[in-house]
């Protein structure tokens, strides 16, 4: 039996008598320790969840206890989180003062009477024995639970069996959210309302985006408490474990959860190693597609992931930071499972996605989720996959000049000065002047020579030393002027397409 006031009252040898409080929850609240003190204010020496024994010496021997004194005393105990107060009778006073009884009743503090023949040490020892028994029982439970969970982890679906066993051991709902925020495994299936699940999903995604190991308590609008615990190492999270009422776990319960986190992390890491092997296979298949051998790729893909997207297809080249590539690949693996025949991807010099011509929303969803730069080809058959891949890379190069988002190759031909030169009905001179306006205006107002320097830099094949010699300036000055011009133009002058646009603008402007 747990260490509570109810367990002490059930001890017939102690002859304790409850004076206030019949609420079952209060009687069953854990009683971590019992102190004895006759101080007027013993709260500095107490902590929440403990009980207090007193003989009432602090109230005086011959004086009557006033309502104000009793109220102040009980208020201090309540604020400190004292669970129960035991009053020893016939030591200083005959019986328990009625004013103290009234104050405890009014302020909601459990009050019990300890008869003269029962020593305080006997009551405290009985409570300590109950605490020890409870601790031993919880330790034994934790060991048994960890053993059961370890055995579950060796089953065919070790991760699912582990989640189910943890749910049984904790007698509550447990769910596992993957890197996309999807509820990957859960037990029991119908343990949480859909609204609560959505809250848990959004909070899990927030933890995953932060990228650091963390534990987060969550309370739903229905008042249900959960604990969210990330899985994986900092900077490389692989999921979130959600546990109902996790905030109320004691030490033994937390140890069991910790073991599950370790096992789940190991299982997911093993899945990741397998995913890396699949990634190498994907890269090889991408190369085969690029050289025009789709039949072998399709037959291989069907065996492992499902069929390739139907023709015509569009290729997306996506620029993913190194620290995010594993997380993005994990998400794409899940999307391939959820959308068979709609997506093929591989990592080479960039992340490449092959989607059906009507499935470009997949690309947009990925770009928006991780704030990425992407280039998207025109539609093509697998026979021209290599050309479409080149188009995607060219579109990505253009997109890198600006903010995150997607640039389509079809739009690329309509952007910049070079594109406008192909249309006789467009005033290319006006386009060139608008293109060069930021640096021309800066030279006019600030008296600088950015335009002359950039023009010479392009003429000297973008070599700073030769530019400096031609202009009679230091090479650092030449570099600084070019970089300043790039910032004014809001373009990346290290990209070939931008340089070509800039050179064309000068050519048109001179015409």
Number of strands: 15
pLDDT averaged residue by residue: 82
* Oligomerization status of the protein chains: single chain
For the termini, the CA-CA separation is: 96 Å
What can be said about the biggest beta sheet? 5 strands, mixed
Q: Structural class, from helix and strand content?
A: alpha/beta
Strand content: 15-25%
Order of adjacent strands in the largest pleated sheet: 1-5-4-3-2
Rg over CA atoms:
37 Å
Instruction: Using the alpha-carbon principal axes, give the shape.
Output: elongated
Number of helices: 19
Stretches with pLDDT under 50, minimum 5 residues: 422-426
Helix content: 40-55%
Q: How would you characterize this protein structure?
A:
The protein has helices at residues 5-9, 24-27, 67-80, 98-107, 120-153, 158-170, 194-210, 251-290, 294-304, 325-338, 361-370, 385-399, 409-412, 416-421, 428-446, 450-459, 464-471, 475-489, 496-510, and strands at 17-20, 34-36, 51-54, 84-88, 110-114, 174-177, 183-187, 215-219, 225-233, 236-244, 313-319, 343-347, 351-356, 373-376, 405-408. The chain is of the alpha/beta class and 511 residues long. The strands form 3 sheets. It has a 5-stranded mixed sheet. A 5-stranded antiparallel sheet has the order 7-6-10-9-8, sandwiched between helices. Residues 422-426 have low confidence and may be disordered.
């Amino acid at each position: 039996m747990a260490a509570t006031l109810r367990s002490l009252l059930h001890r017939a040898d102690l002859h304790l008598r409850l004076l206030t409080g019949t609420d079952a929850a209060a009687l069953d609240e854990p009683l971590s320790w019992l102190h004895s003190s006759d101080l007027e204010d013993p709260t500095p020496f107490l902590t929440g969840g403990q009980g207090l024994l007193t003989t009432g010496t602090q109230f005086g021997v011959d004086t009557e206890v006033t309502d104000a004194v009793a109220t102040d005393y009980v208020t201090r105990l309540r604020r400190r989180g004292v669970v129960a107060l035991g009053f020893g009778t016939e030591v200083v006073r005959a019986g328990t003062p009625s004013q103290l009884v009234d104050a405890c009743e009014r302020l909601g503090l459990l009050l019990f009477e300890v008869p003269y023949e029962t020593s305080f040490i006997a009551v405290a020892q009985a409570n300590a024995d109950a605490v020890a028994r409870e601790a031993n029982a919880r330790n034994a439970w934790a060991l048994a639970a960890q053993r059961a969970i370890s055995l579950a982890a060796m089953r065919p679906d070790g991760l699912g069996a582990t989640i189910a066993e943890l749910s049984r051991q904790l007698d509550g709902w447990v769910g596992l959210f993957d890197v996309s925020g999807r509820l990957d495994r859960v037990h029991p299936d119908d343990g949480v309302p859909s609204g609560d699940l959505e809250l848990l999903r959004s909070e899990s995604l927030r933890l995953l985006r932060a990228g650091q190991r963390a534990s987060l308590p969550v309370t739903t609008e229905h008042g249900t408490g959960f604990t969210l615990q990330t899985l994986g190492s900092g900077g490389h999270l692989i999921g979130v474990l959600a546990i109902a009422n996790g905030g109320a776990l004691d030490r033994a319960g937390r140890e069991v959860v910790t073991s599950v986190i370790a096992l789940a992390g190991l299982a997911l890491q093993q899945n990741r190693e397998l995913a890396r092997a699949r990634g190498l296979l994907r890269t090889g298949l991408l190369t085969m597609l690029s050289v025009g051998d789709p039949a072998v790729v399709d037959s291989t893909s069907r065996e492992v992931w499902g069929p390739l997207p139907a023709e015509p297809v569009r290729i997306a080249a996506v620029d993913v930071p190194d620290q995010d590539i594993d997380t993005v690949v994990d998400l794409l693996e899940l999307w391939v499972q959820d959308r068979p025949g709609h997506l093929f991807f591989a990592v080479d010099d960039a992340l490449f996605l092959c989607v059906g011509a009507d499935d470009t929303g997949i690309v947009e969803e990925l770009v928006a989720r991780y704030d990425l730069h992407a280039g998207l080809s025109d539609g093509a058959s697998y026979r021209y996959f290599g050309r479409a891949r080149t188009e995607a890379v060219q579109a990505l190069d253009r997109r890198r000049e600006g903010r995150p988002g997607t640039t389509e190759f079809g739009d690329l031909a309509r952007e910049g000065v070079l594109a406008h030169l192909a249309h006789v009905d467009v005033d290319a001179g006006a386009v060139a002047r608008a293109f060069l306006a930021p640096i021309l205006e800066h030279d006019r107002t600030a008296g600088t020579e950015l335009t002359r320097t950039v023009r010479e830099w392009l003429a000297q094949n973008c070599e700073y030393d030769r530019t400096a010699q031609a202009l009679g300036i230091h090479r650092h000055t030449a570099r600084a002027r070019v970089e300043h011009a790039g910032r004014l133009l809001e373009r990346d002058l290290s990209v070939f397409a931008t340089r070509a646009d800039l050179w064309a603008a000068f050519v048109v402007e001179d015409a």
